[in-house]
Here is the input.
Amino acid sequence: MTAIQQGVLDGMPEPPAPDADYETWVETVRPTFVRVAQSRRRHWLTWQIKREYKLPDPPDPAHDWGRLMTHLSADGLVQHDGYGQTRDKSCVHAWRGTRAARSGRAA
Here is the structure.
């Protein structure tokens, strides 16, 4: 049986190639996280953003989501905003955009 792959719909990010590396994946998902950080949205979890915006999984899902958020935090875009739960009830960091991100001073 041959798998059918749906094309990318308007407004959806282009998924990285199956053999994509971390940097290629970051180039795909970072703009979405920058837009969320620049919004007034508070207390969001990475899995919620992934699901809401239909973002692709990274090459190493167990580590790369945290790595991305560490980089966004170091860039002054996001800050820790408490904790939340994954669907399997694991505790994870919650985030919100910084004042600099909301005012357009960080991107």
About this structure: The beta strands are 78-85, 91-97. The CA atoms of residues 29 and 97 lie 16 Å apart. The helical segments are 22-38, 46-52, 61-74, 99-102. The mean pLDDT is 87.
